[in-house]
Amino acid sequence: MGYLSERFHIYGRALPSTLEVGEPHVVFYLSDEIFARHQPILVTIEPHSTAILNMQLAADRSAPTWQGHFADLSQHHFPCIGMASDRGVGLVSGYQAAFPEARWVCDRVHEFQDLFERRRQLERTAYAAMAREDKAATIFQNAKSEANWHQRLHQYAQAQQACEHAIAQYDQLDLRLHLLRDALHVCSPFGRLRTVAGVRSALTSLLCLIEEIKDAQRPKILQPIRAHLDDILSPFQQAESIHTDLLELMPEQVVDALVLAWHHEHLAYQSSGKHKHYHQYERQQWLDFAEGLLAHPFELLKAMVFEKLDSIIQTSSLVEMVNAFIRPYLNSCKGHITQETLNLIMFYHNHRRYKGGKRQGKAPIELLTGTTLEAEWVDLFIQSMQEASQGTSLASRPSLELVPPRPELATPSELPASQVIVEPGPESDIPWSAMDAEAA
Predict the structure, then answer these.
(1) Which residues pair with 31 in a beta bridge?
(2) pTM to 2 decimal places
(3) How many helices (H) and strands (E) does the chain have?
(4) 55-86: per-residue pLDDT in tens?
(5) Contacts of 237 by beta carbon, 8 Å cutoff, 6+ apart
(6) Sheet order of strands, 27-36 included
(7) Cβ proximity of 374 and 387 under 8 Å
(8) Which residues, 6+ apart, have CB-to-CB distance to 426 below 8 Å?
(9) Using CA atoms, how far apart are residues 303 and 275, in angstroms rounded to an integer?
(10) First to last CA, the chain
């Protein structure tokens, strides 16, 4: 294991912590912080490809550290047009210092996280109340004396009342959160892209309805949501702009049909079973309807509309997906994570091809650059190590100098071949050639 650890350390050291693609790519950042035994790891990915752009083991997560993280991305040809993240103080401050004019989008998953967590708490409370009611009913049935019967009947009535109250609390919040989730969709059920004013009105009404539920914790949860409402509505400003642009190219009826097709395609990837088949069927129905109305090349217009709609970023949950991919490796390291290990994980993630979903058959770096990889990730890794080994070997060799031979020593040409001595030079940082020889 010591030999393997050493080799992996050397290979990871040869890989960059920031993705290198050569040509500039203007991207939208999704950034987050994950931890390995209290040590922060700063991660930034590109949303559409899910390529990890930078994964940095940091000493802290302060604003200067994040600013350096973003500066490194800029130096590696990844200029920024915006970022989605949670409200981490260092993260947001560092981003704003690095890109004062760029757009920032708050992550709605984190914005409403406490509200949905409260629903889970009320659900558990309701099930516990149901169990207590059932237990009280059983105890009541086993009563023997009349006095005991009255006492246990009173206890059962109290348990039943508490159970009904707990269920009502959960049901009321659950219904309103379903309406809240629907209100945050980019488009309405009729395919119309939602406006900032419309979503603001809907959210304000729903938050008032949620506040009416009798719960001591509700005001504390709702206060930051109301304070951040403008940030939550930021993606709908982009949706309004896109809707205006699309209306200049095609009739409103066609726009609505294509928006609905895109919406159902998006939901199909998040669903399974009957729900997935339903969304796939609806998607195709709306595509057929739009194609029948258009006289222009349909596939080009459809691709253009879908690309514009995909550019609307509402959440950084894709970072959570990448974090979930990274987490097992962090756990296996038992907290002893190094930058070299992160570099290896990043290379594997960016070059391995997805086996399912809408990115099936494509590697993140292929989706980012638009260039098809010529080999599997293992072959590309070997090739990368060999190139790094050759580069290090060449760099470590001293320049040749003409030195007159000493008269008392024989030159190498005068010695028999069996006695020629090659003086060892500095070892290569990446002994991949030696590994190849051993494998052969």
Answers:
(1) 44
(2) 0.71
(3) 18, 5
(4) 999 999 999 999 999 999 999 889 888 888 88
(5) 196
(6) 52-57, 39-45, 27-36, 80-85, 103-106
(7) no
(8) 396
(9) 24
(10) 21
Q: Measured in whole angstroms, how far is the alpha carbon of residue 229 from the centre of its chain?
A: 23
Q: What is the pLDDT of residue 161?
A: 94
Report CA-CA distances (Å) from 412 to 101, 209, 337, 415, 428.
66, 92, 48, 5, 25
Give the span between the Cα atoms of 357 and 144, in whole angstroms: 62
Phi, psi of 194 (to 5 degrees): -75, 150
309 closest CA partner among 183, 198, 185, 196? 185
CA 226 vs CA 83, 105, 206, 316: distances in Å:
22, 16, 11, 20
Instruction: Put residue 358 in one of left, alpha, beta given phi > 0 → left and psi -120 to 50 → alpha.
Output: alpha
pLDDT at 317: 63
Cβ neighbors of 220 (< 8 A, separation 6 or more) are none
Amino acid at 158: Q
Distance CA 372, CA 222 (A): 47
| pLDDT for the residue numbered 390 | 74
pLDDT at 384: 85
Residue 265 Ramachandran class (φ > 0 left, ψ -120 to 50 alpha, else beta) = alpha
List phi, psi (to 5°) of 104: -120, 135
Q: Give the C-alpha separation, 334 to 187, whole Å.
A: 44
Two tokens, residue 371: 């260039």
Q: In which residue ranges of the chain is pLDDT below 70?
A: 1, 295, 316-319, 334-335, 391-440
Q: Return the structure tokens found at 407.
A: 């008269």
Quote the tokens at residue 202.
Answer: 């809907």
The C-alpha torsion from 398 through 402 and 403 to 405, rounded to 10°, is 120
